[in-house]
Amino acid sequence: MVEQAKYLTWITVLTGILIVFPAANAAAQNFADMASDTQGAENALGADAADPDLQQALQTIDGSPLPDGVDSTYTMGADDVIGVEVMRHPEVSGQYLINREGKIQYEFVGDILVSGKTKDEVVELIKEQLSKYIVNPQVSVKILQYNSKVVYVVGEVFRPGKIFMKGDTMTIREALVQAGLPQLTGITKKSKLITPADKGQAKTKHVNVYALLYEGDLRENYIMEPGDVLYIPPTFLTRTMRALQPITAPISDAAGTAGKAYGY
Q: Are 168 and 195 in a shared domain?
């Protein structure tokens, strides 16, 4: 009976660790975020805080426009799907997948190279080709599926993974919103924007996601290009808990089984 009591005591202690650690982890992250230097945040915004354009930008997060001077035009690429409609000519209207060569297989005309072109440029290109067969063709083009350009948001966010872009660039704030925003288990003040490189010399830029989302510091709203990776690293307690989980999970299961056996 003494040995059983000692065993149950150790099980109770370890189970308590499983319960307390996640709560401590969230509390530590919350404390770290709330303990930021208020004066430093005021200096970060400075005189721009009174700018009405900035205030308007801060009122909305989802779907916010790109900063001035940033080209939000979308150029088509492989795997995009477009819809072509020619007025009064359904025989040359339809949906087309852009193949790996950057072309669409278009009726009566043949393959048309559209990769790297904007929607308006494709309209003019199809008009030019159809003018050989149709007098003054009225053409409209829609992008039905955006598949050719992606960025990645990984780490401590609610929906990590790839994000399909609807422009040639995307802001960090827009990417975070589409990824479900950061979790409390992440170090939001020490995130990284990584631009991969073929020769292994990737460029890394530190991003204060907390200042961007919760203090309105638009200087942290960097531009992401296709292939870029935004990484929200886990806190120390999060890494510790995940390392201990394979060890503590069997003990927690054993504790539940023993508790049922002794009527607890």
A: yes
